[in-house]
Design a protein that fits this description.
The complex is a heterodimer of chains A (about 325) and B (about 290). Chain A contains twelve helices and twelve strands. By secondary structure, chain A is an alpha/beta fold. Chain A has two domains: about 190 residues, P-loop containing nucleotide triphosphate hydrolases (Rossmann fold, 3-Layer(aba) Sandwich), CATH 3.40.50; about 70 residues, no CATH class. Chain A is globular, with a radius of gyration of 20 Å. The radius of gyration of chain B is 22 Å and the shape is elongated. Chain B has one domain: MetI-like fold (Orthogonal Bundle), CATH 1.10.3720. In chain B, helix 2 packs across helix 12, helix 3 packs parallel to helix 7 and helix 6 packs across helix 9. The chains are: A alpha/beta (about 325), B mainly alpha (about 290). The interface between A and B is medium-sized, with 24 and 19 residues.
Chain lengths: ~325, ~290
């Protein structure tokens, strides 16, 4: 049994202008000890996907269709009370922007202990001791649990957030851009730490980012999202060496290369589609350099390109074969 | 470790108060009154119950009676000192009640939003727009004149402004990511309001407390002056009341009606100065560079 299986997830937001299709048919899966990278431009539904899995959607959002199996149990159907009990024990989140996810007027250790006390019937002192252990796990001196968030550097705050996410030994950790706003050195440290912990604790990790280079280093699998859909998924090799979707191609091309000549990479022309009213056919066709007539009318089917590799493009095979 | 840090913070706060001229003046005046309220009765050879002889009535200040005597031959200074105690107690307790109600309603309103917010805020508006003096007078008259009732009446009429301010701050704190994090941890509303929101709105509550205390003391004086105070206690308001009743104003007995008036003004001034200064110290946006 897989740890996580997301099937045809659709998450919509009810707004005054109508239904906003934040996630529209996304599927991916993840096993114990594996790391999955969710990548795509801003607003393509990566975070909404994660929030749907943790059932933390704001009240305007709702899962309209599809299933999310966590160890075989469909979390979409669970009651709020049940989810509140399970969340953090099974799925925890490393929040975007650790700077703000810590309460400035509470000691960091107390905030970690809070997570433990809320779920387990143990004393505060014991929870604090465990918070200390967690601090050691994320390679920080245990006496720092007595500090306030403003006494930490950005990287330390991020480590504290990771410690908090691991407080209850979850099976799945979702890192929502855990390294954005950190400098490259600290970013590398944090990513190495996450990778080490994932292997030691055999937990699943979903890494949400728009930085492809991070994913190639740390993940086993990658799912590329565009306009609420997973447009290509596969192993790191599949995605980087055998790219089979025009969007992925262009996304990779957008990354400047340190070794090469000075040259600003080509951006992808146009803007992401309006998700109140997505384009017909393939949602990428208005910006695609390879679009043909069929792309405008027919939604591309899943094209299997190997046991793990899958692309949603009418011309996937063509691109795959070069 | 915990305490050294607290101490350091208190020291920093003390230093800020010392440097701020407004805060320093306010603190000195207030401290003086608190000391008088605590130790004053020991130093004065008269009690409020020492009724004098006929020849002692409304005597101007003399060596025996530094501030003269009132219309019943009592020492004005003794009354004044006992009044400090009563006024500060009433101010303190009533403020505490006010702040409690205001903070609770403000946080609940801001945190839950929607219908609850609407209901609570309309209720607050009611208390905000209703003329508070007639309301207090009616309440005090219905409940009867005792010290506890006066405290109660002042306490339940003075919270509306605090509720408004706390609500607006709660609205902003509620949207901060650590609240979302606490929700995802599985924390209930009560836990979040008590552990995460309250500590973050507390500086505001603290700065507000001082201003509400000033209003509470004025309210007590007003009510007592109008004859709705507790006749058995010698508050400043009661002194003004008796001074007015006995016609000492027209008799030119300035030593009877001026001291309590000046004391009320000084205490209220000290609280107001402190209030504005705290706001300046605790609110980084107002801090002078």
């Amino acid at each position: 049994m897989e740890l996580l299986e997301v099937k045809n997830l659709r998450t919509y937001f009810d707004t005054q202008e109508g239904e906003y299709k934040a996630v529209d048919d996304a599927s991916f899966s993840l096993n114990y000890g594996e790391a999955l990278g969710l990548v795509g431009e801003s607003g393509c539904g990566k975070t909404t996907c994660a929030l749907s899995i943790a059932k933390l959607l704001p009240k305007e959002g709702r899962v309209k269709g599809g299933e999310i199996f966590l160890e075989g149990i469909d979390v979409v159907k669970l009651s709020d009370e049940k989810v509140r009990e399970k969340r953090w024990k099974e799925v925890s989140i490393i929040f975007q922007g650790a700077m703000n996810a810590l309460n400035p007027v509470m000691r960091v250790g107390d905030q970690i202990a809070e997570a433990i006390v809320l779920h387990e019937n143990i004393k505060k002192e014991e929870a604090l001791k465990r918070a200390g252990d967690l601090f050691e796990l994320v390679e920080m001196p245990r006496e720092r649990i007595k500090n306030y968030p403003h006494e930490f550097s950005g990287g330390m705050k991020q480590r504290a957030m990771i410690a908090m996410a691991l407080a209850l030994n979850p099976k799945l950790v979702i890192g929502d851009e855990p390294t954005t706003a950190l400098d490259v050195m600290v970013q590398a440290q944090i990513l190495n730490l996450l990778e080490k912990l994932r292997k030691e604790l055999n937990m699943g990790l979903i890494l949400i980012t728009h930085d492809l280079s991070i994913l190639s280093e740390t993940c086993d699998k990658i799912a590329v999202m565009y306009a609420g859909k997973v447009v290509e998924s596969g192993t790191v090799d599949d995605i980087f060496k055998h790219t089979s979707h025009p969007y992925t191609q262009r996304l990779i091309a957008c990354f400047p290369n340190v070794g090469k000549d000075k040259e600003i990479p080509d951006e992808i022309k146009g803007t992401p589609p309006n998700m109140f009213n997505p384009p017909t056919g393939c949602s990428f066709h208005p910006r695609c350099h390879m679009a043909i007539e069929i792309c405008k009318v027919k939604e591309p089917p899943a094209v299997s390109l190997g046991s793990s590799h899958c692309s949603f493009c009418h011309r996937a095979k063509e691109i795959f074969n070069g | 470790m915990k305490w050294t840090m607290r101490k350091r913070k208190m020291k920093a706060f003390g230093k800020a108060v010392y440097r701020n001229k407004m805060a320093f003046t306010g603190a000195v005046i207030l401290l003086l009154f608190i000391l008088v309220a605590i130790f004053g009765p020991i130093l004065i050879p008269f009690s409020t119950m020492d009724f004098g002889e006929v020849e002692d009535i409304l005597n101007p200040p003399s060596k025996a009676h530094l501030l003269g005597t009132d219309d019943m031959g009592r020492d004005v200074l003794a009354n004044l000192i006992s009044g400090a105690r009563i006024s500060l107690i009433i101010g303190g307790v009533a403020t505490f009640i006010s702040m409690g109600i205001g903070t609770l309603i403000g946080i609940c309103s801001g945190y839950f939003g929607k219908g609850i917010d609407n209901a609570l805020m309309r209720f607050t508006d009611f208390f905000l727009v209703i003329p508070w003096l007639p309301l207090m007078m009616v309440l005090a008259a219905i409940l009867g004149t005792s010290l506890l009732n006066i405290i109660f009446v002042i306490g339940i009429t003075g919270w509306a402004g605090t509720a408004r301010v706390v609500r607006s701050q709660t609205l902003s704190v509620r949207e901060r990511p650590f609240v979302e994090r606490a929700v995802s941890l599985g924390a209930g509303s009560g836990h979040i309001m008590a552990r995460h929101i309250l500590p973050n709105v507390f500086p505001l509550v603290f700065a507000n407390t001082v201003l509400v205390a000033a209003v509470a003391i004025v309210s007590e004086t007003t009510l007592s002056f109008l004859g709705l105070g507790d006749p058995s206690t010698a508050s400043w308001g009661m002194m003004l009341h008796y001074a007015f009743e006995s016609g000492s104003t027209s008799a030119g007995a300035y030593w009877y009606y001026l001291p309590p008036g000046i004391c009320v003004v000084l205490v209220v001034l000290s609280f107001t100065l402190l209030g504005y200064a705290f706001d300046e110290i605790l609110n980084p946006k107002l801090r002078k560079r």
